[in-house]
Amino acid sequence: MTKKLYHGAAYYPELWDEKVIEEDIKLMKEAGINVARIGEFAWHTMEPEEGKIDISFFVNIINKLYENGIETVMCTPTPTPPIWFTHNHPERMYVNQNGETMGHGSRQHACTNHPYFRQKANEITEHIAKAIGHLPGLIGWQIDNEFKCHVSECMCKTCQGLWHEWLENRYETVENLNEAWGTKIWSEYYHSFEQVPQPHPAPFLHNSSLSTKYRQFSMEKIAEFSDSQAEIIRKYSSEPITHNSNIPFAVDNERLFENLDFASFDTYATQENKASYLMNCDLWRNFKKGKDFWIMETSTSYAASLESYASPHANGYLKAEAVAAYALGAEAFCYWLWRQQRAGCEQPHGSVISAWGEPTVGFQGVLEVEEMRKKIEPIMISTRPLQAEVALTYSDQAKAYFQTEPHQQMDFRGLVTNFYHHFVSLGIHRDVLPESAHLEGYKVLFTPFLPHISDEYRERAVEFVKNGGTWIVGPISGGRTGEHTIHTDAALGKLEEVSGVKALYTYPLDGTGSKGTAFGESAPLGLWSTVFENDETTVGTIKGGNSEGKAFLTESKLGNGKIVHLGSLPIGEEGDILLKKIIDHYVTSADVTVRTNVSNGTIVAPRVGENSTQTWVIVNMDGQGGQVDLPAEAIDEFSRESVSAGKFEVGPYEYRVITFK
Questions:
Q1: Which of 275, 329, 342, 579 could hold 285 in an S-S bridge, CB 3.0 to 4.6 Å?
Q2: What's 312's DSSP letter?
Q3: Distance between CA atoms of 420 and 392, rounded to whole angstroms?
Q4: Contact (Cβ atoms closer than 8 angstroms) between residue 423 and residue 390
Q5: 451 φ, ψ to 5°?
Q6: Which CA distances in Å does 97 have to 198, 201, 215, 224, 655?
Q7: CA 201 to the chain's CA centroid
Q8: Is 574 a catalytic residue?
Q9: Cα three-residue angle 263-602-635, rounded to 5 degrees
Q10: What span, in angstroms and rounded, lies between the C-alpha atoms of 472 and 451?
Q11: Which of 295, 303, 294 has its CA nearest to residue 340?
């Protein structure tokens, strides 16, 4: 298959008559849509009565699209079981943490672990794969839709039994579980695995080990379901398989994509929250290293439902968003959705075409994206995203820890996104890595907000340091065990042994008047913090508060590199300045070269071609225009004119592509 960039939309032909479908295909071609995603909610259309399965409608749609130059990603319809599956069968349904059983009428209302759901899901998926797997218009598969976006851990009887099996496989004996979880606290001690409850409503909080392990159990089970669906599809099709996920969902994305072929995500970040959007691109690029990711859903202008709506994009932003995605490693940029739905709970949602067949407020943006796609496609195909020299670890397992232990409503996603934003503003090219990623080629590794640092991760990081890397650990990293308990040998466990630091206290610095001083900057400190002994490792000290004169920032040599402990988070405007200073100091001292001086609101996405030629895609994303410092003379890829080293201007939402000589 010839390599190309995809520009697509989710399409639901089962909702429309033949005349509208013909009109839609005509309009798709005019808008430059070259891929459609179909089938994800169409279980009823495929199997209106139990056992009576007919996939011919979708076979015809795929063929018709292909005849018109539009390829297809086919989805399995398992998020929306039909009424014959749900009616009078509460035992098959999802049960929330309050013990409430879901009914029919939305999506994700069934328990994906129920054996009859698994049976029927496997049957419908096998029928689809047999009927569609050989079609020339098919280029990929999507399993289900947005696992665990509306629900989290199911509390039904099926899950209770699987939970007990999972615990027995993990701990082998209930005595091992009791010891690991410290269940003599509050007389929680269990005499059999069958006695271990699900985290149902309780007078106060559940044991942290129970809550976090149940979340991990749920994450593993949804990944196993995805694996089983992929296994069925692969019997009949060689096209690559993905799932459309996102950071907020109750899944472990690293585990989810482990056995899929490429990674994709959905995003509805408003332009004010572009850091979140960019972080997703930098993370999804690394779930399947070396393979392009897909943006499977984004809005042409705004997201909405019956209950809410988001601010529309400014004119020009959609193009900037799309070129940034392609430049950062996306193969596809797709919308939800093509034609506005006339019924249901998402009627108000932004789309390409309205329910009555006219262009929406986002349509002009779609045309601009298509014009841009054609322009940059040859350059994107002949280059790859340049590996960064700076890495930031992201972990959905850490997300589970924060859900169990949020303290003052600490939100893992928000903490990581705000931390990440500083790298963007400093013009540092960065990779956001899952926990098990290799560290070759990096000079600096940041590990913030990772309550539990596994032995495997620590060993890889230590080896990275010995080989000359700089590892910055914290804030809120390393203070919990794999069982979500507190270390008993040292506050940070074996981390203190390898780095040679001494943690004195762990407590919240909010409201204590504590200020941190390092590298000529000073700022208030906050959140749950680790305070260190002030000794030869100290590079940042605490002024005021309960730990006057102690350290919040330490630096230890190890092999050819160094381990840095950032024990507390600088907060407020002064905190942003101090944190940027800390980041910049260690990136500079590590001789990181893949960075540039770029104005706020503008980004640089470096790519590399044959003969190691470097190409920069420069995009203004705030509508204010901006500038970037070019380190050497370059060629403008569109005008073919020379561009001098020095200040390089870009207009509002403008993009430029330059290649260095």
A1: 329
A2: P
A3: 8
A4: yes
A5: -55, -40
A6: 9, 7, 12, 22, 47
A7: 29
A8: no
A9: 90
A10: 14
A11: 303
Cis peptide before 337 (omega within 30 of 0): yes
What type of residue sits at position 76? T
Number of CB atoms found within 10 A of residue 235's CB:
10
Q: Which of 40, 47, 71, 146 is catalytic?
A: 146
Nearest to 292 by CA among 302, 303, 281, 301: 281
In whole angstroms, what is the distance from residue 570 CA to residue 517 CA? 10
Distances (CA, A) of 67 to 34, 71, 386: 12, 9, 37
Q: In whole angstroms, give the CA distance from residue 24 to residue 340.
A: 11
* Segment-wise mean pLDDT, segments of 10 residues, the chain, 661 residues: 88 98 98 98 98 98 98 98 97 96 95 98 98 98 97 98 98 98 98 97 96 98 98 98 97 98 97 95 97 97 95 97 98 98 96 98 98 98 97 97 94 96 97 97 98 98 98 98 98 96 96 97 97 96 97 98 98 98 98 96 96 95 97 96 96 98 87
Backbone phi and psi for residue 641, each to the nearest 5 degrees, phi listed first? -95, 155
User: Which residues define the annotated binding site for Zn(2+)?
Assistant: 111, 154, 156, 159
The torsion of the CA quartet 549, 552, 557, 559, rounded to 10 degrees, works out to 150
User: Do the beta carbons of residue 316 and residue 368 sit within 8 Å?
Assistant: yes
- Residue bearing tokens 């089938």: 39
Catalytic residue selected from 254, 297, 370, 521: 297
Which residues belong to the annotated binding site? 107, 111, 145, 154, 156, 159
Distances (CA, A) of 117 to 22, 37, 121: 35, 24, 6
- Contact between residue 438 and residue 383 where contact means Cβ atoms under 8 Å apart: no
b/e map of 523-535 (b: 16 or more CB within 10 Å)?
bbbbbbbbbbebe
Q: Tell me the H-state helices in 68-201.
A: 83-86, 115-132, 157-171, 174-181
- Which residues have CB under 8 Å from 314's CB, separation 6+? 271, 623, 653
Tokens of 494: 């074996």
Asked if 92 and 83 count as a contact pair (C-beta separation under 8 A), the reply is: no
| Helical axes 363-382 vs 317-327, angle rounded to 10° | 20
Q: Which domains, ranges and CATH numbers included, belong to the chain?
A: 390-589 (3.40.50.880), 602-660 (2.60.40.1180)
pTM: 0.96
Give the pair of three-digit tokens for residue 330. Answer: 């996306």
Annotated binding site for substrate: 107, 145
Best CA proximity match to 381, nearest among 327, 325, 320, 429: 327
590-593 own/partner pairs: CB under 8 Å, 24+ apart: 590/389, 590/443, 590/444, 590/469, 590/470, 591/443, 592/389, 592/390, 592/428, 592/443, 592/444, 593/389
- Residue 7 identity (one-letter amino acid): H
Tokens (6 digits) for 227: 């694996």
Give the list of residues 6+ apart from residue 198 with CB closer than 8 angstroms, or none: 153, 155, 159, 160, 163, 214
Q: Tell me how far apart the terminal alpha carbons of the chain are, to the nearest angstrom.
A: 31
Q: How far lies 410's CA from each of 150, 191, 374, 485, 526, in Å?
A: 20, 35, 43, 18, 12
Q: How far apart are CA 609 and CA 380, in angstroms?
A: 9
- 146 annotated active-site: yes
What's the full length of the chain, in residues?
A: 661
User: Rounded to 5 degrees, what are φ and ψ at 275?
Assistant: -60, -40
- Give the gyration radius of the chain's Cα atoms: 26
Find the largest Cα–Cα distance for the chain. 77
- Token match 């840095």: residue? 564
Cβ atoms 531, 550 nearer than 8 A: yes
